[in-house]
Design a protein that fits this description.
The complex is a heterodimer of chains A (847) and B (363). Chain A is of the alpha+beta class and 847 residues long. Chain A contains 30 helices and 20 strands. In chain A, helix 14 packs across helix 17 and helix 16 crosses helix 17. The longest helix of chain A is centred in the middle third of the chain and has 45 residues. Chain A starts with a helix and ends with a helix. With 363 residues, chain B is mainly β. Helices cover 2% and strands 51% of the residues of chain B. Classes of the chains: A alpha+beta (847), B mainly beta (363). The interface between A and B is large, with 40 and 36 residues.
């Protein structure tokens, strides 16, 4: 062993073994922090990593795709097939079906099964896969409308019947064959049967192409686009996956940053632990220094201690993170599906880089947090350290200086919050939050001493335990400040996110008042989602409209488009009923009727707030949309608030849309009941009229309830992260109080010697915890309020483009804060018990 | 006959044959051109078959083949969307690089779909994807096709009127009413164009032969394969023969041929009028293990003709890449021999089927 290592071992590692609980807490804090960071990283990749994965897997041999809003006119297939180029073409119908029995959603793929023989010809020469039709009885029902080929993942056998819900229809299909789907459950049909099943004849959803090997895909894309009508989109396969990834970047980024809160709180804890170590080993430091250890060695020893904690924490954190990722991926998947794009989470892959990053971050945070106390330890002179009778470490607290710096930082935070986004990311917004936290932390010593001093009169009245407790806290102001700072940071983050989510929730509820005016909403049972819009048979809307007691039926038709490289939803609606009863809030403040009238008469659209934010457009601008075969220009008549989805939304009148896409099938229906009619009776009528269709009928209340349920689900992961951060902070308080007790053995022993009872001692310790908790909660609330403003008006706005109106979620916040306060006090019971059990004689004898 | 029926027959053996009565080939059919260049949808099977021998100015020789098949699958009136399968289109493309010693081939199958394959009298076009034959008003025909290895573009101009095979408008293939086809050929098509092989362009000229045949169920169950010859002789005459081989190894008496004189006048030749026998060289395919006789002796006493058929490229075997069609041999051949003691040369194409497996026919 070298001298350094020996010193490190004697000075640092041996004493560690004597305090397993306190060190255990520090290690767990690091472990939790590392675990959360890793879990969010892994879950983020898994939850957002695969979009329509089955479809993409089934498209893997192609490098170009042709798409169009509302489908590619099928003549384009013939046009491309006859071009004098050696393309391989695969026209496709692509959608999903719900297996009636299991309610599982599977990809439904319509292929030109005749043409597939050509494609297999080239593949089979390479792969020798053999004749895929061998053994199939092609003569019986090969082209029948009920023929399907099931992926092996579906667990169906050849000849079995499967009932599927496609759009608003349920039909029985016969499995003609089973193919190996490599765990991407899908159903294949012939394209003719698929078109009819989906109600989309004369269109194909996508044409996949393989251009000759080794040639530039982009130049081919340009050449093909120049031949096709302007509404067609020709691009490299995988572009949409890339676009989806881009769309999700902000979401993932914000979640990732949120995951670091627990680690930051953990850093406070490490700081505190190392500070205690320094205090505790003051004498040893002195001896070591007197015996020739230099400052660097002392610094190294303490930083090394932190690093050791970091390594152990990270080692526990990595497997823990892998376990937590499984839960996180579910929560994140819900959010992604509700707000962005339908996707199936991929497998969680614990990559080397992720693990290494997590470990580096864990150790890094520990080392950085330990640096300040370690440096202080190094600066102690041997004489000072070994001086008799000065066991307490007089920490130099420059509370006035710190407070001044805090004020400067707060000012910087203010300025930073005003700065615009950088590359679509609210970098300055995040910087502002860091500044606010730093300012808060620096202001805490001043605040703590002021508050305690100011309240000493009141505390005196509360009894000697409280007074002693306050004196003790004031006596070790620095340590108190660190503890209050750690807990306050956690509370602040929780408060801030709580305020933001609460404000958001209330904003959404108020918004729905105007946006959801109809009595009933109808949608197909065939799994609609944020980026998929199955349709309802057009005649059903007419049937509803003819029912007694129905005043009006509004039809809404939505399509998926890619606007400026960003996935966007475009929809057309009748807006008759909405005009009468709804009150959509527009940016201009104009009444809905005026805006809707404008939509009906001109080539105008309204767009959602996130759309304007994503594309940098405003009211009065002109946008070009690819609709059907045309590229059409529209004026933005107005902008409306939309909290339904984070994707951009373009809305136009149905009569305008039908000029470009003359498809009558609606995606959703809104049914308005005549004044005075019994809604229950009308619902029964509607259900009766829809008995042959598979549609879901929601009452107004149902819809709102469902919307809020989804909203809450999407923020579940945020709450989970907050909870972990708070847990770490409370553990920190417990650990710190424990340290306090052990440090003040002498003092506590004296108190006992002087006649204090065990109960009094316990009360004193609990009072300290209560004071700490109270201070931290108040400081956290104040800080949290400041942070929430940044979150709502800077970070959210710059990341997602939502206008959230500020609300105090009083119930949630007061509940959470009381809980934290109670937990802090409860956490003090263990140290209090230890303090009570100290043997005064033994303690004083030690003196 | 151009009994390429086997391809279609084999392919479509597995597809549904509805009980919808398709029209059968009956005596007395009156041909009319250009109408009969195009589709006859009431018959179940139809093909357009062009083969040719061409050379570059410096003498490099190529053989080519471009075939379009149409097979009716359904005549279900209730289905009228573009993707509904009424007819299937199969096509074969081959290039024989006779001097380079290489054989290139492709196969494709398509439904009519939204313009993917089909026949249009209006546009004068028969096509399958980007392979097509296009007739212009003046009767010339454009032929274009390509695959990953090569592409060609030919202009074909007929020196003779279409020749109708068989007797009374039908080419009988086996015993029974309707067991026949309507079958005509353009036997001397002067061909000019370009072949681009492996990035190199060749200007070529030569002679092509086009067959067009349409029918419903023409073969009998014991007919296992056939050998077909097209012969373009240097004296301006042409010969066509097919022999139908039966399961027991004998030659079917419905085997037949046609002689076309220099003026375009045709004479029907029955099985008794000629003999065609494999003689000498055989070639065994390493890919399919099938052995083909690639040298034949032809004697037509009636015309005082005796010819020897040989090929410069033994490996002209087409393998069903889609695995829906069987393998067969079809390639450029050369003829040398005597006519009334005068030496005679010619070129043409030879097709040999059923050597791999007996052709299974549908009922």
């Amino acid at each position: 062993m070298t001298g350094n290592a020996k010193l490190f071992w004697r000075l640092m590692m041996r004493p560690l073994a004597r305090e397993p609980v306190r060190l255990g807490l520090a290690v767990i804090a690091v472990a939790l922090g590392v675990a959360v960071v890793l879990a969010i990283d892994l879950a983020g990749t898994a939850a957002t990593g695969s979009f329509h994965s089955s479809l993409e897997t089934l498209a893997s041999n192609y490098n170009l795709e042709v798409t169009a809003t509302g489908g590619v006119p099928e003549q384009i297939v013939g046009q491309l097939a006859t071009l004098p180029f050696n393309f391989v073409l695969s026209p496709r119908m692509e959608d999903v079906a719900v297996v009636s029995e299991t309610k599982k959603t599977v990809v439904l793929l319509g292929l030109d099964l005749i043409n597939e023989a050509n494609i297999l010809q080239t593949e089979s020469r390479k792969l020798e896969t053999g004749n895929p039709y061998a053994g199939e009885d092609l003569s019986k029902g090969f082209f029948a409308d009920d023929s399907i080929w099931a992926g092996s993942g579906l667990g169906r056998k050849k000849g079995q019947q499967v009932s599927l819900i496609v759009g608003d229809r349920e039909k029985t299909f016969t499995v003609r064959g089973v193919y190996d789907d490599k765990n991407q459950p899908a159903i294949i049909m012939d394209i003719a049967a698929a078109q009819r099943a989906l109600g989309r004849t004369e269109k194909v959803d996508r044409i996949l192409m393989r251009v000759p090997d080794g040639q530039n895909v982009d130049s081919w894309a340009k050449q093909i686009a120049s031949i096709l009508p302007p509404g067609m989109e020709v691009r490299a396969v995988g572009t949409s996956t890339e676009e989806n990834r881009k769309m999700l970047a902000a979401f993932r980024w914000n979640l990732k940053l949120l995951s670091y809160i627990a680690l930051i709180v953990g850093a406070f804890l490490i700081y505190n632990t190392i500070s205690v170590s320094v205090v505790r080993r003051r004498a040893e430091i002195g001896i070591a220094r007197a015996l020739g250890a230099n400052r660097a060695e002392i610094l190294f020893a303490f930083v090394g201690e932190a690093a050791a904690l970091g390594i152990i924490g990270a080692a526990i954190g990595v497997p823990l993170g892998r376990i937590m990722a499984a839960g996180a991926v579910k929560l994140m998947g819900t959010t992604v599906n509700a707000l962005y794009v339908s996707s199936r989470p991929g497998p969680i892959q614990l990559g080397f880089t992720s693990v290494l990053t997590a470990i580096a971050v864990g150790i890094g945070v520990a080392v950085v947090a330990a640096y300040a106390p370690a440096r202080e330890a190094a600066q102690v002179t041997p004489v000072e350290a070994m001086a008799r009778g000065r066991r307490e470490f007089i920490v130099r607290v420059h509370k006035t200086r710190d407070f001044t710096i805090a004020l400067v930082l707060a000012g910087a935070a203010w300025a930073s919050a005003k700065a615009p986004a950088v590359g679509g990311k609210p970098l300055f917004g995040y910087f502002a939050t860091l500044l606010v936290i730093a300012a808060g932390t620096l202001a805490i010593p001043a605040a703590v001493s002021t508050v305690i001093r100011a309240s000493s009169r009141f505390l005196k009245k509360s009894g000697v335990a409280a007074l002693l407790a306050s004196r003790s806290l004031l006596g070790s102001l620095r340590r108190t400040s660190v503890l209050v700072g750690a807990l306050a940071t956690a509370v602040a983050m929780m408060t801030a996110v709580g305020i933001m989510v609460g404000s958001f929730r209330i904003t959404v509820i108020q918004w729905m008042e105007g946006e959801v005016p109809a009595d009933f909403y109808v949608r197909p049972a065939g799994n609609p989602s944020v980026d998929r819009h199955p349709t309802i048979s057009p005649e059903l809307a007419d049937k509803f409209a003819a029912l007694p007691g129905v005043e009006a039926v509004d039809r809404l038709r939505a399509y998926e488009i890619s606007y400026d490289g960003v996935p966007t939803t475009i929809a057309a609606a009748d807006l008759h009923g909405t005009q009468k009863r709804g009150r959509t809030d527009f940016f201009s403040g104009r009444p809905s009727e005026d805006v809707l009238e404008e939509l009906r008469t001109g080539n105008s659209v309204v767009v959602s707030e996130p759309f304007t934010y994503k594309h940098g457009v405003k009211r009065g601008d002109t946008i070009s949309l690819k609709l059907g075969t045309s590229l059409a220009s529209f004026r933005i008549a107005d902008v409306y608030y939309d909290y339904g989805s984070e994707r951009g939304f373009v809305l136009m009148d149905r009569s305008v849309m039908k000029k470009y896409l003359p498809d009558d099938a609606p995606s959703n229906l809104a049914v308005y009941v005549t004044n005075g009619a019994d809604p229950r009776r009308v619902r029964e009528e509607i259900e009766q009229a829809a008995r042959d269709y598979r549609v879901l009928i929601f009452s107004n209340g149902d819809l709102r309830h469902e919307a809020i349920k989804i909203f809450d689900k999407t923020f579940a992961i945020t709450y989970a992260l907050e909870a972990i951060a708070v847990l770490v902070a409370i553990m920190g308080v417990a650990g710190a109080l424990l340290a306090l007790v052990i440090d003040r053995k002498r003092e506590l022993g004296l108190l006992r010697f002087l006649g204090a009872t065990g109960a009094q001692i316990r009360r004193m310790i609990l009072a300290e915890a209560a004071l700490l908790g109270l201070l931290a909660n108040v400081a956290g609330l104040l800080l949290g309020f400041a942070l929430s403003l940044i979150l709502i008006f800077v970070i959210n706005k710059q990341s997602f483009g939502w206008t959230i109106r500020f609300h105090w979620p009083v119930a949630v916040l007061s509940g959470a804060i009381s809980l934290i306060f109670a937990a802090t006090v409860l956490a003090a019971f263990y140290p209090a018990r230890i303090a009570m059990r100290l043997n005064p004689v033994e303690v004083v004898h030690e003196e | 006959m151009r009994n390429r029926a086997f391809c279609a027959a084999f392919l479509f053996a597995t597809f549904p044959m509805l009980d919808v009565p398709y029209r059968v080939a009956l005596p007395g059919y009156r041909y009319e051109f250009p109408r009969d260049f195009f589709a006859h949808s009431s018959f179940q099977t139809e093909w357009w078959y062009t083969t040719g021998n061409v050379k570059t100015p410096d003498g490099r020789a190529f053989g080519f083949e471009l075939t379009f098949f149409r097979q009716a699958v359904s005549r279900d009136e209730s289905k009228h969307d573009a993707w509904d399968v009424k007819d299937l289109y199969l096509a074969h493309l081959a290039l024989s690089d006779l001097d380079g010693g290489r054989f290139y081939q492709s196969e494709r199958v398509n439904r009519t779909g939204p313009g993917i394959a089909g026949v249009s009298a209006q546009d004068g076009k028969v096509w399958n994807g980007n392979w097509f034959a296009l007739w212009s008003k003046d009767g010339t025909q454009q032929l274009r096709a390509q695959n990953d290895d090569f592409q060609f573009a030919f202009s074909l101009k007929s020196e003779k009127l279409p020749v109708i095979h068989g007797e009374n408008g039908i080419s009988q293939k086996s015993e029974g009413v309707g067991r026949a086809s309507h079958y005509f050929s353009q036997t001397r098509l002067v061909t000019n164009g370009t072949i681009e092989l492996k990035g190199k362009r060749h200007t070529v000229s030569g002679l092509s032969w086009m067959d067009h045949e349409f029918f419903t169920h023409q073969l009998a169950a014991d007919q296992v394969g056939w050998d077909w010859f097209s012969i373009q002789l240097e004296d301006g005459t042409e010969l066509m023969f097919f022999i139908l081989r039966r399961r027991d190894g004998s030659i079917d008496p419905y085997s037949a041929g046609t002689y076309v004189d220099a003026s375009g006048k045709s004479t029907h030749l029955s099985a008794a009028d000629f003999s065609l026998t494999p003689e000498g060289a055989v070639w065994k395919s390493t890919a399919t293990g099938t052995t083909y006789p690639i040298q034949w002796r032809l004697v037509v006493p009636k015309l005082d003709v005796a010819l020897e058929a040989r090929t410069r490229l033994p490996q002209q075997e087409l393998m069903g890449g889609t695995r829906l069609a069987p393998s067969y041999w079809e390639g450029a051949v050369e003829f040398t021999g005597l006519r009334a003691n005068t030496s005679l040369r010619g070129s043409g194409y030879l097709e040999m089927t059923g050597y791999n497996h007996p052709i299974q026919l549908i009922k």
